[in-house]
Design a protein that fits this description.
Radius of gyration: 18 Å
Distance between the termini: 19 Å
Number of helices: 6
Largest sheet: none
Mean pLDDT: 90
Number of domains: 1
Strand content: under 5%
Length: 191
Protein backbone atom coordinates (compact mmCIF):
# COMPACT_ATOMS: atom_id res chain seq x y z
CA UNK A 1 0.00 0.00 0.00
CA UNK A 2 2.85 2.42 0.76
CA UNK A 3 4.35 2.21 -2.76
CA UNK A 4 1.00 3.45 -4.15
CA UNK A 5 1.17 6.53 -1.93
CA UNK A 6 4.77 7.09 -3.01
CA UNK A 7 3.85 6.71 -6.69
CA UNK A 8 0.90 9.07 -6.25
CA UNK A 9 3.14 11.62 -4.51
CA UNK A 10 5.72 11.33 -7.30
CA UNK A 11 2.98 11.73 -9.91
CA UNK A 12 1.69 14.87 -8.17
CA UNK A 13 5.25 16.14 -7.85
CA UNK A 14 5.72 15.59 -11.60
CA UNK A 15 2.45 17.46 -12.21
CA UNK A 16 3.62 20.39 -10.08
CA UNK A 17 6.97 20.51 -11.85
CA UNK A 18 5.23 20.67 -15.24
CA UNK A 19 2.67 23.17 -13.95
CA UNK A 20 5.37 25.46 -12.55
CA UNK A 21 7.32 25.22 -15.81
CA UNK A 22 4.27 26.22 -17.87
CA UNK A 23 3.52 29.10 -15.50
CA UNK A 24 7.13 30.30 -15.78
CA UNK A 25 7.07 30.10 -19.58
CA UNK A 26 3.78 32.00 -19.78
CA UNK A 27 5.07 34.78 -17.52
CA UNK A 28 8.31 35.08 -19.50
CA UNK A 29 6.35 35.37 -22.76
CA UNK A 30 3.96 37.87 -21.15
CA UNK A 31 6.82 40.10 -19.99
CA UNK A 32 8.43 39.93 -23.44
CA UNK A 33 5.12 40.90 -25.06
CA UNK A 34 4.63 43.72 -22.54
CA UNK A 35 8.01 45.20 -23.41
CA UNK A 36 7.59 44.62 -27.14
CA UNK A 37 4.07 46.09 -27.40
CA UNK A 38 4.33 48.87 -24.82
CA UNK A 39 3.49 51.45 -27.50
CA UNK A 40 0.27 49.75 -28.62
CA UNK A 41 -2.67 50.64 -26.32
CA UNK A 42 -4.90 47.89 -27.72
CA UNK A 43 -2.32 45.14 -27.22
CA UNK A 44 -1.35 46.51 -23.80
CA UNK A 45 -5.01 46.42 -22.72
CA UNK A 46 -5.33 42.85 -23.98
CA UNK A 47 -2.18 41.79 -22.12
CA UNK A 48 -3.41 43.40 -18.90
CA UNK A 49 -6.70 41.49 -19.15
CA UNK A 50 -5.03 38.21 -20.15
CA UNK A 51 -2.67 38.12 -17.14
CA UNK A 52 -5.24 37.69 -14.32
CA UNK A 53 -7.47 35.59 -16.61
CA UNK A 54 -4.55 33.21 -17.15
CA UNK A 55 -4.01 33.04 -13.39
CA UNK A 56 -7.66 32.05 -12.89
CA UNK A 57 -7.40 29.31 -15.52
CA UNK A 58 -4.06 28.05 -14.18
CA UNK A 59 -5.40 27.85 -10.62
CA UNK A 60 -8.52 26.07 -11.90
CA UNK A 61 -6.48 23.42 -13.71
CA UNK A 62 -4.07 22.97 -10.80
CA UNK A 63 -6.78 22.69 -8.14
CA UNK A 64 -8.72 20.23 -10.28
CA UNK A 65 -5.59 18.14 -10.87
CA UNK A 66 -4.59 18.11 -7.21
CA UNK A 67 -7.62 16.74 -5.43
CA UNK A 68 -10.38 19.12 -6.44
CA UNK A 69 -11.70 22.47 -5.33
CA UNK A 70 -12.79 21.46 -1.85
CA UNK A 71 -9.33 20.06 -1.12
CA UNK A 72 -7.67 23.23 -2.48
CA UNK A 73 -9.70 26.02 -0.92
CA UNK A 74 -6.97 28.66 -1.28
CA UNK A 75 -6.73 28.00 -5.01
CA UNK A 76 -10.50 27.89 -5.36
CA UNK A 77 -10.65 31.33 -3.77
CA UNK A 78 -7.79 32.45 -6.02
CA UNK A 79 -9.83 31.41 -9.08
CA UNK A 80 -12.61 33.71 -7.89
CA UNK A 81 -10.20 36.58 -7.04
CA UNK A 82 -8.43 36.36 -10.41
CA UNK A 83 -11.73 36.18 -12.31
CA UNK A 84 -13.07 39.25 -10.52
CA UNK A 85 -9.73 40.98 -11.15
CA UNK A 86 -10.00 40.23 -14.87
CA UNK A 87 -13.38 41.96 -14.96
CA UNK A 88 -12.07 44.82 -12.80
CA UNK A 89 -9.15 45.37 -15.21
CA UNK A 90 -11.61 45.60 -18.11
CA UNK A 91 -13.56 48.26 -16.19
CA UNK A 92 -10.42 50.06 -15.00
CA UNK A 93 -9.15 50.23 -18.59
CA UNK A 94 -12.07 52.54 -19.36
CA UNK A 95 -10.96 54.87 -16.54
CA UNK A 96 -7.19 55.29 -16.42
CA UNK A 97 -3.83 53.57 -16.13
CA UNK A 98 -3.83 54.63 -12.47
CA UNK A 99 -7.00 52.57 -11.92
CA UNK A 100 -5.51 49.57 -13.71
CA UNK A 101 -2.38 49.67 -11.56
CA UNK A 102 -4.49 49.96 -8.39
CA UNK A 103 -6.51 46.89 -9.44
CA UNK A 104 -3.30 44.97 -10.10
CA UNK A 105 -2.00 46.03 -6.69
CA UNK A 106 -5.05 44.74 -4.85
CA UNK A 107 -4.93 41.54 -6.90
CA UNK A 108 -1.21 41.04 -6.15
CA UNK A 109 -1.90 41.29 -2.43
CA UNK A 110 -4.86 38.89 -2.47
CA UNK A 111 -3.42 36.34 -4.89
CA UNK A 112 -0.05 36.53 -3.13
CA UNK A 113 -1.63 35.71 0.23
CA UNK A 114 -3.50 32.80 -1.35
CA UNK A 115 -0.36 31.54 -3.09
CA UNK A 116 1.49 31.74 0.23
CA UNK A 117 -1.28 29.66 1.82
CA UNK A 118 -1.14 27.09 -0.99
CA UNK A 119 2.66 26.84 -0.70
CA UNK A 120 2.51 26.27 3.05
CA UNK A 121 -0.17 23.59 2.63
CA UNK A 122 1.79 21.83 -0.12
CA UNK A 123 5.07 21.92 1.80
CA UNK A 124 4.00 18.94 3.89
CA UNK A 125 3.17 16.76 0.90
CA UNK A 126 5.70 17.76 -1.71
CA UNK A 127 8.36 19.89 -0.11
CA UNK A 128 10.28 22.32 -2.32
CA UNK A 129 7.64 25.02 -1.81
CA UNK A 130 9.89 27.67 -0.28
CA UNK A 131 10.03 29.61 -3.56
CA UNK A 132 6.23 29.66 -3.82
CA UNK A 133 5.97 30.82 -0.21
CA UNK A 134 8.55 33.54 -0.85
CA UNK A 135 6.77 34.50 -4.08
CA UNK A 136 3.44 34.84 -2.28
CA UNK A 137 4.97 37.11 0.35
CA UNK A 138 6.77 39.20 -2.24
CA UNK A 139 3.55 39.47 -4.26
CA UNK A 140 1.84 41.04 -1.25
CA UNK A 141 4.65 43.60 -0.94
CA UNK A 142 4.61 44.29 -4.70
CA UNK A 143 0.86 44.86 -4.51
CA UNK A 144 1.34 47.50 -1.85
CA UNK A 145 3.99 49.15 -4.01
CA UNK A 146 1.69 49.15 -7.07
CA UNK A 147 -1.11 50.74 -5.06
CA UNK A 148 1.30 53.43 -3.86
CA UNK A 149 2.42 54.05 -7.46
CA UNK A 150 -1.20 54.28 -8.60
CA UNK A 151 -1.64 57.23 -6.23
CA UNK A 152 1.38 59.06 -7.68
CA UNK A 153 1.63 61.70 -10.36
CA UNK A 154 3.64 59.73 -12.93
CA UNK A 155 1.27 57.95 -15.33
CA UNK A 156 1.71 54.17 -14.91
CA UNK A 157 2.28 51.83 -17.83
CA UNK A 158 2.39 48.10 -18.41
CA UNK A 159 6.08 48.32 -17.57
CA UNK A 160 5.04 48.94 -13.96
CA UNK A 161 3.40 45.49 -13.93
CA UNK A 162 6.08 43.66 -15.95
CA UNK A 163 8.57 43.29 -13.04
CA UNK A 164 5.82 41.65 -10.98
CA UNK A 165 5.23 39.11 -13.75
CA UNK A 166 8.99 38.69 -14.20
CA UNK A 167 9.51 37.81 -10.54
CA UNK A 168 6.58 35.40 -10.80
CA UNK A 169 8.32 33.68 -13.71
CA UNK A 170 11.53 33.47 -11.70
CA UNK A 171 9.84 31.86 -8.70
CA UNK A 172 7.87 29.38 -10.81
CA UNK A 173 11.05 28.41 -12.64
CA UNK A 174 12.96 27.99 -9.36
CA UNK A 175 10.15 25.81 -8.01
CA UNK A 176 10.16 23.62 -11.14
CA UNK A 177 13.93 23.20 -10.93
CA UNK A 178 13.83 22.51 -7.20
CA UNK A 179 11.14 19.84 -7.62
CA UNK A 180 13.21 18.23 -10.39
CA UNK A 181 16.28 18.08 -8.15
CA UNK A 182 14.20 16.83 -5.23
CA UNK A 183 12.60 14.12 -7.38
CA UNK A 184 15.97 12.90 -8.64
CA UNK A 185 17.35 12.75 -5.10
CA UNK A 186 14.34 10.70 -3.95
CA UNK A 187 14.72 8.36 -6.93
CA UNK A 188 18.42 7.82 -6.17
CA UNK A 189 17.81 7.18 -2.49
CA UNK A 190 15.12 4.61 -3.35
CA UNK A 191 17.64 2.55 -5.37
Amino acid sequence: MEPTVTNQTLSQSDWLRSYYSVRAAFSILWVAAAVLFTGSPTLVSALLVIYPAWDAVANYVDARSNGGFKENSSQTLNIFVSTVTTLAVVLAATKSTYAILAVFGVWAILSGALQLTTGIRRWRGYGAQWAMILSGGQSCLAGGFMITQSLGTTPPSILDVAPYAGFGAFYFLISAIWLTISSRRKARSAI
